[in-house]
Input
Amino acid sequence: MSRPDTTQWRDMMSYLKDHHGTICRQWFEELEPVRMDAGLLEIQTSTGVQQNYLQKRCLDPFIEAAQAVTGNLVGVRFVSEPTTPKPPAASNGHAPTMPPPTPRPGHPGREFDDDQMVLSPDYSFDNFISGPNNRLAAAAAAAVAEQPGTAYNPLFIHGGVGLGKTHLLQAICQKILEVHPDHKILYVSCDAFMNQFIECVRSGKMSEFRHRYRHVDMLVIDDIHCLTQKDRSQEELFHTFNELYQNNRQIVLSSDAAPAEIPQLEERLVSRFSWGLVAHVGPPCFETRAAILKAKAQMRGMVVPDEVIDHIAQRIDTNARELEGAVLKLQGLSTLNKQPIDMDLAREVLGEQAAPRTNQVTLQHIIDAVTVFYNVKLSDLQSRRRHKSVTEPRQVCMFLAREHTRFSLEEIGGYFGGRDHTTVMHSIKTVKQRCEDDAQYGSQVRQLNDQIARQ
Ligand code: ADP
Ligand code: MG
Output
């Protein structure tokens, strides 16, 4: 047995960054290689949630990194406690975070352990951005985590896809486990609940099913709207609910619709789901979107300029999952092209054309052309003077600015001597009218127009 080499550990971490950048997180810095024994590298994590997550989601990349760096056939195991083995805490049985390394025969419901949802350390309250769209749901979730079984029971969170329902459910689980590692939490998807039910009915193991679902401190079911078939699973859930509720056990549910709007949900379940608090999550506003982008980038250790954050937050206004997708693409492209994250990369991610560098007409192009043609100075155009020799080129400038740039009427008016938008509108109308009435004037304006367009 030996302690792992620290240089090799550092090399492993850079290997992961280079080859599996998308799995890397800031909190990987807390990981510590504690033992190398008979070709098995043990890596210590700070929490049980981290341990379970890494073991279930990231094992293969870590093994690949260990083998690439050492050149040997190495296995990897994540541990969450000091390596001197302690007697296993028997009460951990149901916690989704720390499955004991060896199966304990006869433990009820063991065969379903793989159906437990894996908690992701990403989905914590610290990483959740609260805004006007989700403030109630976030506050209720925090209250439930603080006082499970008493604050709001059940807590029912509903809203569209990618708006943070699963994130909040997992944050509740993690917060409770931080304070009470022995809390028995059963966190499943609705599909898993239904499949297990059907399987237990088929194999005559209903008593195991009931033991599993009714002897927990908290039951969390994600996407409960999937419970749409009026069959015995609804009845089973009804009885499960009653038993847990009567024993002050916390129930947390998420759904894409409010209880009364879930098709085919039995009336008695609709009513029970509404007993506690029903909280809605809606689409994030601009500020929340920008904050989510920042948080997601920071979690991955990425440096993203503010203008890139703003640009993406302006263009992706649907949900947080799409925002996270954009961050992932940024990271992927930046690694692939060995390119820093900048506006060009952001445009590529968003499928936009890179900013045209040469042929974008600016106000300056217009002013240059018009002042030369009419032989006036910019200061004249920006002055309050109303002599025809100045008003005519000024009007043409306003007309061309409107045609070729994205400035608003207010902005154009402001630039040409602090005029208001009605003046700009009037000028544009005048130019258009005169182009029709006066052939020579029309051809001059067209000539200027073509000259500017060729920039
Ligand atoms: P849902 O379950 O509502 O479909 P998720 O909880 O899976 O959505 O969220 C999708 C992604 O968006 C996740 O990565 C999640 O962390 C992120 N997300 C959603 N809302 C927020 C938020 N308010 N703050 C930070 N991340 C968020
Ligand atoms: Mg979800």
In short: The chain has a mean pLDDT of 89. The pocket of adenosine-5'-diphosphate (ligand 1) is lined by residues 122-123, 127-129, 134, 161-167, 292, 295, 320-321, 324 (CB under 6 Å). The CA atoms of residues 87 and 345 lie 52 Å apart. The first strand starts at residue 32 and ends at 37.
